[in-house]
Design a protein that fits this description.
It is built from one helix and 49 strands. It is mainly beta and 642 residues long. Strands 4, 5, 6, 7, 8, 9, 10 and 11 form an eight-stranded antiparallel beta sheet that branches. Strands 22, 24, 25, 27, 28 and 29 form a six-stranded mixed beta sheet that branches. A four-stranded mixed beta sheet has the order 16-13-20-18, with no helix packed on it.
Amino acid sequence: MVSGVTIDRRRFATLGFLTTLTVLAFASWAGAQSRLSTGFYYPLSTYVSTGCSYYLARDAAHGGCYPFDGFYHLGYDNRAAVGAPVFAVSAGTVAKIESDGAGNVAIYVQHTLSDGSKFHAMYGHVRSTLRVGDTVLAGATIATVGPYGATSSHLHLGISPGPVIPPGNLEYGVNAYWPSTNGFTDPINWLLTRSPASLSTVRLTVTVTGGGVVTSSQTGIACGGGATSCAADYMPGTNLTLTATASAGWTFAGWSGSCSGASACLVSMTAARTVNATFVPATATVGVFGKTGPVTGNTGQSLATVLTWGPAANATSYEICVDTTNNLACDTGWVSVGTRTMAVPSVATGQTYYWQVRARGGTAVTESDGGVWWRFTTRGGARFVCDVNYDGRADLLWQRSTDGLAAVWYLAGTSATGGAAFTADAAFGAAWKLVGAGDFNADNACDLLFQHTDGRLTAWMMDSTRRWGVRPLTPTAMTDADTKLRAVADINGDGYSDLVWQKESTGQVSAWLMNGTARAGVLDYAPQQETDLGWKLMAAADMNEDGHPDLLWQHDQTRAVNVRIMTGGVRQQSLAITLVPDPGWVLKAVGDTNWDGRPELFWQHTSGALGVWTVRGLVVSQAGALTPSSNPDLTWRLVGPR
């Protein structure tokens, strides 16, 4: 017997006499991570087999190792020095780890063959930091040989075909069926008649900036402390956690790449990944910086407000607060942003907002502009949208010329998603023309304005497509037949829609300022008319997002389109948008149909074709057909909103 070694018949390597010395041709090699001819890796860099092991005799009749006291050894024992590296025979997943009671462990790894079937390899009497669920790569060092007795350190290698670890655990088996193989599989002979699955790997690359280290929950990544970049390969589908630990005098600022934030980084290796970890000095001072826009005190601010600010030295992130209370404190909570811009969500019309930005770098924080908060006020008055189905987007209004029936198309962007006829006496008759839509009782519903051929004006008070009231306007009619209603818009920002008129013979423009359905005053535009009477007022809409309805004009001969930028009734400037190449196109309606706070322009050709312009910054950014591109029944005419 081997001197000084206690025989443990219950564990991996039952010791006995060396009765046979049969050296097999395949069982001797040298050099780290050598490979068998079939593609598997040798588990040790140096290996000599006696046909069973250094310690156990071979039972040639049954393929197993010589039994002792009713136990049957189920693997090879391969002598190796303490600390010798142990290599995975192929890629796999750790299925089980157990202790041998002597400070060593046995690692059970499930591997895959080229035909897709599974087998388990048990690497016994080793020391390792692996955990159940870890993935190992082919030929990777998964353990080192542990001490065993005084001079008998060795690796126990066992093979069990199939996806389930057998009750014998590849260690030993009670010899209840002697003489039998009792579950023994000759490991190397078995590997020499099969090939491993060809499993590709994906690479995780980690970079570290500053003082700190990054480690992975699975073996492979230990980066930092001088190594600013490191990488490891993993089997596809591996899930692992990266942990950042700051060095003394440093603090972890956050992740970038495949992770963000500053908490633990969870990485799913479904593809190659790159993760960056940034550490900053704990005592770093963040530089001074300032806000850039909108300038403090700005009024008439767009509802699509974007806040911007300059850079701060040593800043790794920014936080912003937008509040409605002027108390130099953040009542709504600071919001972390990764860039130096932020679009303000859900702003209200006519509301003053106060805002501040602060920069972070480690534990240091600096507020912009020396702690001074800025403010802006959105454009006044409620921004009316003729939204019949209450989805926040403007809809198109139609009227049939044969009987006066009114209907609506529901829009989403440049497409109609549905439609309906207006209910409750939806047809006044062909003598009543649908001339506009507005809000005549400040309930933000799309009320309809009709004018009779004799000049009388009547408003339908609406709830979606349901008419709940009819109210004649005061005065009840436009008595000048030469003056036509051209647009409906809230000119003075009081929440009620006003009526904009143009006298055809002179081109003069004026407005009835309404208080509900009653006229409260008359406004003459300045200038009141165009010198070229070919210009016709077609619609009113806020084209430059300053809170004031602007006037849209089209020339009845050249078909050119101009916008008069207005403040109330005073023209600030006149701008040409573009030229309509086909004189058959007429501007019929305006409205925001895509939730961006800017109106789209809707056109109808004399052929019945429908088109739409998307205008951004008074420039046509997109022009095309509406969907559907026409109303097949030409008795219907597009009438608004305008």
